[in-house]
Design a protein that fits this description.
385 residues, alpha+beta, eight-stranded antiparallel sheet, seven-stranded antiparallel sheet, 7 helices, disordered N terminus, disordered C terminus
Length: 385
Amino acid sequence: MKLILKILIFLFSYALLFAQQNDDSYNNVLLTVKNNSPVWTSTISEYTNNNITRRLFQGDRVLGDRVIWTIINHENIYLAYILFNNYRYAIHANDLLPIVDERLPNSWIKKKDSERKWIISYYLDIIRSQDRNTFLSYEKSWINSLIEDMKHSIALGEFNLINKNWYNELQFIVNFESLVFLDAVVIMGGFDRRPFFITNIESYSNGYRLTLSGDSYFMVPTFGDFSTRLAFPLRSEQTMFKIIFIPDGDYMDVYLNDLNSYFYSFALVNSDFTDELFNLVENNTIDISRIIWPRRADGSMDYPPPSGVDLSRTYERIDFSNNVYFSNEEEIENTVINEITNGTDKVIFNKENEVGFTLSFWVWIVVGVGAVVAIIAVVIVRKRN
């Protein structure tokens, strides 16, 4: 019964968020299919591996319309509604690519089995408070609005919920994954997350600047009703906008347009962290000893834990560096660095061994607190002429 309740509330919450009509002025985003991919007719009530409508093929051009979060075969899945040959389908959102010259690094893209998730940084403050009511400091408007909508549905007989406290209702519908990078889509927010299609990617500082277009829900007049949503530009301001992502250790700092307009920060945490967030919502208890506190590259923390918490454990640092491409062999052959300095980002060096082969390395040095955590190398081997 509890599982059924979870599914019902989950589906209802997303029906509320996405049961809006497309605005006639919305321009769908042109995308391409990355792999041969199953699709479903968008009007079916449940997406499973047993009711696939057809398949699209690598390179097919489609129009992106909307992105949703749902469950297929007990897995959390992001689906995109697309238009193809005048039909509307649902497709795995990670099977789409933007039509752009540059790509986000593979390490940024969410994988199916990703153990770590980006959470909005104020969840760290909630965890360190060890009190679920701290959610109300950040999400009160969103919580109140959703509860009112649910109470209305209960009054209409659509639901019969025994528990009426916000935490009894919300524990089943909150997804604590606050920032998701897919090849063609970025999703971000707090409780109220918003998906955006990527229309351009450019390297910027030590991160990337993306041009984003809101999906069709972004275009309707009611977008932004919840005052705790992140302050994305509204349709009345601009239909597309630029946003910058700069990695810093276990954090991702986000800016609008340029580095003078700070937007928000996210932190990369493991499943123990999100499990304890769920535990806090449901039971108002937490095992804070399970928490590994994310750090910036210099070892600092935006929300330090309570005194007495063990800080000896740290996350394995993930390489969020830009992709590096060699323009030609001469560039590799003529780059010789004999010594690697702690903290160096990217260096290339060659070493010729005694049997006449040249080893060319691209090295990314991952620096923890005062020490090299890992050295990742790509090796190219060529026989000397």
